[in-house]
Amino acid sequence: MEVSVTGPSKFDIFSNVVHTSLNANLTKNLDGGGNDVANSQAMIQMENTIMTRRTPSIQTTLLKQPLKTFKPPTWPLPSTVSEFYSEEVISNCQREYVSMLWRNLKQQISKTSLEHMSSLNKHATRFLEEMGSKTDISALQGLIKTFFENIETYNSVKASFDGKMTQESYEGLLSTTQQNLRIIEMQEQEQVKSVEDLESQITQLGNKETELKEQLEHLCAQREEKTMVLNQSREILKKAQVEVAGLREEIQKIENTPRLSEEDVKVLGKMERLLEEDQNELSSFQFFG
């Protein structure tokens, strides 16, 4: 089976992109200074290496030398012999096997990103070795080899651009960072206002605390004064309570003392008068006349 390859291949496009990027980078370095000129020239040299390695766009035969097929004999065969050609069956199976390997390899290449393509190289080599053991795939091997060589060159060129970014990435990153700055500045202003309000409140609370401390000191002095008066009052109260208890006891005694009846008072009064008369008589008695 023959495969015709016409028009620019992926490697042509890849090389043109690298060439354009490197020339632009060299022009920029020449305008901005001579520090990166040597690096840019080295990049152009790598791009030229890609162009040298690239397989030309030609009529490529994937299976250049097909396996020999078994030709049945021309003489008549007995009717009892089955027409089964083992070589043809084996050849078809090998073709199908090679096609299956190539489909799997193509699928892996198509879904692998360029950044991780180098890791696929050893697997591709193993596939090609197995395919090459069944048929001639020299043209395909050349394409795959050139592709992975270009991948290595691409990785080298990309590594030389470390620390740099595209204009689109630069503008996007700058815009995002400036937007974040505006947001943070707004938050900063809010925090400044919040801090100022809190400082004002703390100052007011400090003044209030000072006033309360002064009031507390005044109250403490009043408490000490009142405590002193209270102690004095307690002493006075204690003495008064003692006097009250004594008077109550005396009153109790008085209340328990038997009282004279009116008749007794009259009798006692009469006796006092008689005694007073006797007293007067004795006072006026003259013993010797």
Automatic annotation (TrEMBL):
Protein keywords: Coiled coil
Top-level taxon: Eukaryota
Coiled coil: 195-257
Protein name: Uncharacterized protein
Natural source organism: Cinchona calisaya
Lineage of the species this protein comes from: Eukaryota, Viridiplantae, Streptophyta, Embryophyta, Tracheophyta
